[in-house]
Amino acid sequence: MANNKFSESTLLASPAILFLLAILGFPVILSLVYAFSETTFQTLTSPKFSGLSNFRDVIEDATFWKAAWFSLRFGVITAVLECLFGLALAVYLAPLIQRHGWVVAILIIPMIVAPAMMGLMYRLVLHEFAGPIPYYFYSWLGWSPAFLGPNNVFSTVVVAETLQWTPFAFLLFLTGYQSIPREMREAAAVDGTRPWRLFWKLELPLMMPTVFVAIFIRFIDGFRVFDNIYTLVGSGPGGSTTSMSIYIYETFLRRGEIGKSMAAAILLFASAFIVLTVAQKLMRRASQ
Prior knowledge:
Helices cover 76% and strands 1% of the residues. It has helices at 2-35, 53-59, 62-99, 103-107, 109-112, 115-125, 132-141, 153-178, 182-190, 195-223, 227-232, 244-254, 258-287; strands spanning 37-38, 48-49. It starts with a helix and ends with a helix.
C-alpha cells in the first residue's frame, strides 16, 4: 500500500521534476561546456575544447581577484551593518508595532523598490554637478565630498545597500523577537531583571538562529551584488566597485570571452557552495 502511494506521488510529481531539470539542467550543462571550451560569439555554436585554460586565465587575472576582494568586503560589511540596524529597529520598535502594525509597511518601502531603480535614484541625488545632496552640502558647509569619486565610492555603495536591505533584516528579527514567549519575559521582570540584561541574557540567545540566517542571507546577496551598483556607478573609477557579478557580466558581454566568464561563474558558484556548507555547520553547532 505504501509502495503504491509512493509510486503515485512520484508519477504526479514527475512532470514538475522534468520541467525543473529541463529549465535548470540545460543552462548548467551549457555553462560547463563553455567553461571548458574556447568560446566567443563567433564560435558560440561550435565551441572548441580547451581544458582548464579558462580557469587558469581567470585565476591569473588580477581583475578577478580584485573583484573577489571587493565582493567579500562588501558582503561582510553590508551584512553586519544591516543586521545590527535591523536588530536595533526590531527591538526598539516592537512595542510600537504591536499597537500600530501599519508602521511595518512604511519601514519596508526601500526593500520593495527594485535595486536598479534605487541605483538610478542615488546616481541622480549624488551627482557631483546636478545632485541635490552635493548642492546642499556646498551651500550649507562650503564644501561637498565627491560621493562617487575614488575615495568615497565604496562607502557610498555600502550605505546605499545598507539603507535598502536593512528592512529585510528588520522583518526577520521582528518575527523572531515577537515569537519569544511572553511568559519568559514576565518571569524575568518579576525577578527584577533590567531591560538590557533581559536582552543580552534571554532575548538575544533565543534569537541567535535568526541572526545566523539573516547574516548568511544578506552576505550571499551582498557578495553577488550587481544591479544597484552597476546602475549607480558601474565598475567604478579604476574598477574600484567591480563585484564578481559585474566582472562576469563585463567579461561575457563587453569582451566576448564567454568561456572565461563561465569559468568565473563556476568559481563563484563553488565559493558560494563552500560558504553555504560552512554556514550550515555553524548553525547546527549553535542549535545544539
